[in-house]
Amino acid sequence: MKNKIPSFLLHPQPHPKAGGGSVKVSFIDKGVGHISAFYETVFLQWELSQRDGLFQRLNARTKVLFLVLYLFIVSVKKDVPTEVLTAVFILPFVVMSRVGILAFYRRVITAGFFFGFIAGVPAVLNVITPGEPVYTILELRRQYDFWIYHVPQTITVTREGTLAALMLTARVANSVSITLLVVCTTPFSEVVKALKVFRVPEYFLMILTLSQKYAFIFLKMLRDMHTAKKARLTGAADAAHWIAGRAAYIFKKTQLRCEDVYKAMAGRGFTGEVKLAKLEKTKTVDIIAGAMFLTLWMLLLIL
To answer: Which of 51, 122, 243, 255 has its CA 20 to 30 A from that of 170?
Structure first.
């Protein structure tokens, strides 16, 4: 029996006409798109850690020390000018580390806006933070009392509340910038080695390492399953049935993966001790950078 060539392959097909409409994207496609973006972000961070910049030249111990010291400063200081000064001190480190200043601060500003500014906006009102009125928003007929809450007759923006919201925003932005600078310039394995040097419990390091690897494995599996589904299934009913089946499959796969990993680790003589390769020896640039970090840290602490 001879194979017949389909008719649509023998004749040129008309080009689709542009109708100017929008293509509807399902929430599953959006979720998988976010997963792909996460993969790209992780790869970009690995690429940034290989560049020839200031922080890339430093030992992981020095960078973890920088992370701890400056997060401590951000946490204990309670005035906006010191937080702004901390951001100014961090800026040269970002520039000299060549991590892409625009992309870097775009992520910092986004995190600061959503987790700092928006979360702190209610605190600017005298309903939450009583204080010196700055701007009147609403005038009610009378004051109200709900259980332990008091709503005054005049709702205003207070000076103390505004400072509290700005303080929260600055703390979030500084914390993200410090953490992101270390993460973007240091491979994950080097961070784990540095934490072991600082006497972090071994079981915590083991859980952290396995969780990081599990996240990548199952995110990749989820993306591959969705790609396979789109190539085989169509229709809302099929998609709904597929989602229920895949959720059960991922749960079962997770359990099997945990058992297989444990058996593999036990078969190789794992006794609970986390054995990591040694970090590089401390170099002159680490000593100079460490002294500079400590000097700036003490200056910020005194101010």
So the answer is: 51
Burial class (CB in 10 A: 0-12, 13-18, 19+), 97: buried
pTM exceeding 0.85 = no
By CB atoms closer than 10 A (0-12, 13-18, 19+), residue 10 is exposed
- Give the pLDDT confidence of 110-128 residue by residue, as tens digits: 888 888 888 888 888 888 8
138-197 pLDDT, tens digit per residue, is 888 887 777 777 778 788 888 888 898 999 999 999 999 998 888 888 887 788 878 877
